[in-house]
Amino acid sequence: xxxxxxxxxxxxxxxxxxxxxxxxxxPASFIFHAxxxxxxxxxxxxxxxxxxxxxxxxxxxxxxxxxxxxVKRCFSGKLSLPVMVFSFAxxxxxxxxxxxxxxxxxxxxxxxYIDFGEVALPLSIFLSFTSxxxxxxxxWRGFMREEFHKKYSFLKSSLCQGLVWCFWHALLWAVDSDFxxxxxxxxxxxxxxxxxxxxxxxxxxxERHNNLVYSVLLHFGFNIVYVFLNVDxxxxxxxxxxxxxxxxxxxxxRNRRVRACEGExxxxxxxxx
Length: 273
What we know:
With 273 residues, the protein is mostly helical. The protein has one domain. It is 79% helix and 0% strand. Helix 6 packs antiparallel against helix 13 (233-272) and helix 7 crosses helix 12. It is globular.
């Protein structure tokens, strides 16, 4: 029977994150009452678990390829400054648009929803960047994306990747969320929709520009807003609606581009004949 390396990686990544949260994160917070910066550093170390798992257990997940060959391929696409800016601005802009709509509805200034907290701004930005954006992408958009793309079409592969990624966060929804009453339901729905939609957007960009720097920036653009947000559940409701509207539009544009490229290839082949 052919070994399902993708399944091995997904199951292992879930087990590892749950163990790290239960054994490391929870005691540090609830028993030792670690200060905010220390908890943030611990969360960052935990967020890197998909990369630890992939690189340390490489021979169990991709035994027929060298690590460095894989890593070089993940960053093989030529970097473009406009695409880098766009990648960050896409998710960052959607969150800002959500905040703008919320401020209009509630009649409050946008800055009233921002709380810079106890951690210095430069350190907050650095810790946010060195968390999920740099810690998760090699596993999710590197290994998992390649494996799912071998099995399914672009859209089905992207949806599967998104669902795996979002439910990898499931334990955090219970232990690291302020929404423990009825608001937990729209909050979880928002996470499922948002994370899956972001995966689709990442894959659209990576399909044309195969370099994980772009997915790192897109991930960072999504995460950085939440570092400073002080909002209620309606922010997440609006965010869900925006992603449900914008992501299908992006997929339609991508599909038209792919069909156009295929048409050009067919015309070139006909001319050669």
